[in-house]
Amino acid sequence: MKFAGHHILGISQFDRGHVDRIFEVADRMRPYARRERKTSVLEGAILGSMFFEPSTRTRISFGSAFNLLGGHVRETTGFESTAIAKGESLYDTARVLSGYSDAIVMRHPTEGSVSEFATASRVPVINGGDGANEHPSQALLDLFTIRSELADRGRGIDGLRIAMVGDLRFGRTVHSLSRLLTRFSNVRVSLVSPSELRMPEALVEEMRERGVDVVETDQLEVGIANVDIVYSTRIQEERFASQADADLYRGRFRLNQSIYTALCEPNTVIMHPLPRDSRVGAQELDEDLNDDPNLAIFRQSDNGVLVRMALFALILDVADQVDDYSKPVNWSTERRF
Amino acid sequence: MKFAGHHILGISQFDRGHVDRIFEVADRMRPYARRERKTSVLEGAILGSMFFEPSTRTRISFGSAFNLLGGHVRETTGFESTAIAKGESLYDTARVLSGYSDAIVMRHPTEGSVSEFATASRVPVINGGDGANEHPSQALLDLFTIRSELADRGRGIDGLRIAMVGDLRFGRTVHSLSRLLTRFSNVRVSLVSPSELRMPEALVEEMRERGVDVVETDQLEVGIANVDIVYSTRIQEERFASQADADLYRGRFRLNQSIYTALCEPNTVIMHPLPRDSRVGAQELDEDLNDDPNLAIFRQSDNGVLVRMALFALILDVADQVDDYSKPVNWSTERRF
Amino acid sequence: MKFAGHHILGISQFDRGHVDRIFEVADRMRPYARRERKTSVLEGAILGSMFFEPSTRTRISFGSAFNLLGGHVRETTGFESTAIAKGESLYDTARVLSGYSDAIVMRHPTEGSVSEFATASRVPVINGGDGANEHPSQALLDLFTIRSELADRGRGIDGLRIAMVGDLRFGRTVHSLSRLLTRFSNVRVSLVSPSELRMPEALVEEMRERGVDVVETDQLEVGIANVDIVYSTRIQEERFASQADADLYRGRFRLNQSIYTALCEPNTVIMHPLPRDSRVGAQELDEDLNDDPNLAIFRQSDNGVLVRMALFALILDVADQVDDYSKPVNWSTERRF
């Protein structure tokens, strides 16, 4: 259950105790994220933020999390400016860059690259996404959001009923979240997708073996009827075998206020990994839901900062010092707009 | 007259009292910008610097202003790395990014985009330029420079005589400055431009209605003869209807040392929004003026830091705490070159 | 021997006393780079990191060095976002940007550009590389590494025997290092290169005039036989006059474990400016040396942080205050991987 000095590479390294510990620390980060207090616990520490693939929100979320703990952030974005383009191995890159910081968060388009990098790094590495493989902080913030939203309803993750909707074949976030859910009891997962985009069979088997009750359907109205959470994801039209197939399913997995009201239990929580496509015709998660208090997508994004603060605090072993280094915030957080 | 918790989106939101307050705070920022003292008043605060259009000097000026107040800066530059490119709405972008920081400065190529973003933001937003629309900190730093330069001559903004020279049709900075000047008394503005590039008629009318004495001319020698300030801007040749027109005016709005000496009153202040084009043939504001003490263009750029510090201090309501959190600077500011 | 308020533009400005002073300060930075202690000596100071040409490792190394001293970093990378692209002179860029920071590090593809920039800057400028011209912190970190490695063997730089291997004609780092070595006594330099890529004759003459014992050879086995240091650099095939020449030399300057063991004295130190090309066929410095304790290439890269901290501390005149502003590090530097 110790995190100090460990890499965070994938969710397979976490048992339920780890998850509980991360969430407990994340909970304690709320006063800082809400700017009620500030802490200088990582004053003088440096995060190396190595984004070899662009992802503004993930990058800024990690960077802000480190800043909120008092540390500095040094960044690189993109490949154009890197020695990797000149034939440098990930081994060398890791040996060099890990001499510049106290922790590294890395995103890279190639599966397995972050683990390879971590092997040579001299400081703890957090995987910020390596292609289709892993993005553990996203899975954790998703689960943390489920936990927070259910807590507001007096419930825990055990006994959760969740629908995952959309592209379940290629969606990294739903795969990771599904795996994390196997650590909990009495979970029922309703998988709602076109047949072309079903959750990989092996993963469905894995969930079932570990006691998750899995139901598969291509009917939205069936899938989202009796759940606590609807986790919606984007379907890209080009994923279908033919235009005829795409046409067949067009708009069938869309969620808007009237569909929500008609099909879902009251207070069903709506989640989405973001970004959502809001262009006309995207038919994903309509903007008419923006004022619905059950739309949790921005709380979900906010929770990312809490979870990332927790991960940094844990791998650098300052989780229990954060409050000791804290002060009230002295600027105004008033909003007059 | 309260700024705390407000957005800074355009100059129309400022009356004379606001302008006076901003400038009074900006004046008090001088010891920090000059590195006589340092302050940690915003220690722990995070600025989200969102430049969806490149502008190195504006970006660094805002970032340094926030650093000088003790805060951290998280940045994004360009579109390539943003979810906006994947169809995310400004609403979603704002909801997400505003969860990562205490204030946001945003630049975007589209008119109105920053206001739209601000509507969904949960923290105060400063417009760092939205296309041809607004760039309020630039207008404020221009007016602050006029005030500072005239103060050195024992004068105030009331009674100002200013010439604006060059492209007055498309130049956002001269438009905003003109509007700001309507808040003051006995101002005389001399507009010097080719006829194709005259100030928009509506803006000239607006100034006159508010009591500004406006004179228009295409003769540089007439326009800059009896003024306190010459505000020069660039004329781009492609703005002319024909090459013949461009040829007709070529070099006619150029300012250099001999023209300055021949036509201007002694100690007339020279301003320019920068960057100036110093390539051969640009004929804008010649480098032989670089050593003239009346060339205020770099003081103008320096003043940008003061004004931006003031804006941050005001919207976060720490203007009156800045000195309480201050210390003498302990490094050397000696220059031996 | 005073550095305060001076630019660092090239190694010609350093005599032996300067070098000794830089290294003495760099030595004192070790506890901070090792995260045993942290210092806030430059808290409130801002580094302007202006990389008009990409170089991730140099940029991050400088930025981390400034952060380790407690300061903030504002950055720009690339040309796309700069006023220079709109015709702004380096003079104007320097006047403007130097108003935003306490020191500037600048990299630029054009020889002489950093010196030109420095002339107009109002704060001290460190040259982070101007084309083929100078990159003084690289030369200093190379020499500092030689000094550190030899100190572990009970030796000093005087009396050094070093082999420089590879492309000695175009390699900026070996040129600068060679010049720095002329400040020391009884130095023997063995230059190992294909005849097309020999060290420029003028530089060889300069070394000899200043008392360096220079031997030239195109035989690796001769050149690296009796030295303390092998400084390996990359040979690019396209440098050869013909493919036949390239074929002739292919693999002849490669260093791997078996060649090292067969030809070098025990404990010969291996250096390289990095990045090294680890692609198959690069034949430069093989990865089978990675676990050899005599491979100093990552210590060399780490030393860059020490040397850059020293340069900042010296030009801002805080070298003797660093420890006064220090505290023990409170986070864990444990490694469990």
From TrEMBL, chains A, B, C:
L-aspartate binds at K86, R172, R234. It catalyses: carbamoyl phosphate + L-aspartate = N-carbamoyl-L-aspartate + phosphate + H(+). Keywords: Pyrimidine biosynthesis, Transferase. Its EC number is 2.1.3.2. Residues 158-314 form the Aspartate/ornithine carbamoyltransferase Asp/Orn-binding domain. It holds the Pfam family OTCace. InterPro entries: Asp/Orn_carbamoyltranf_P-bd, Asp/Orn_carbamoylTrfase, Asp/Orn_carbamoylTrfase_sf, Asp_carbamoyltransf, Asp_carbamoyltransf_Asp/Orn-bd. It is an enzyme of class 2 (transferase). Carbamoyl phosphate binds at R57, T58, R107, H135, Q138, L274, P275. The keyword Transferase applies. The keyword Hydrolase does not apply. Pathway: Pyrimidine metabolism; UMP biosynthesis via de novo pathway; (S)-dihydroorotate from bicarbonate: step 2/3. Residues 7-147 form the Aspartate/ornithine carbamoyltransferase carbamoyl-P binding domain. Signal peptide: none annotated. One of its GO terms (molecular function) is aspartate carbamoyltransferase activity. Catalyzes the condensation of carbamoyl phosphate and aspartate to form carbamoyl aspartate and inorganic phosphate, the committed step in the de novo pyrimidine nucleotide biosynthesis pathway. PANTHER family: ASPARTATE CARBAMOYLTRANSFERASE (PTHR45753:SF6), ORNITHINE CARBAMOYLTRANSFERASE, MITOCHONDRIAL (PTHR45753). Belongs to the aspartate/ornithine carbamoyltransferase superfamily. ATCase family. Heterododecamer (2C3:3R2) of six catalytic PyrB chains organized as two trimers (C3), and six regulatory PyrI chains organized as three dimers (R2). This is Aspartate carbamoyltransferase.
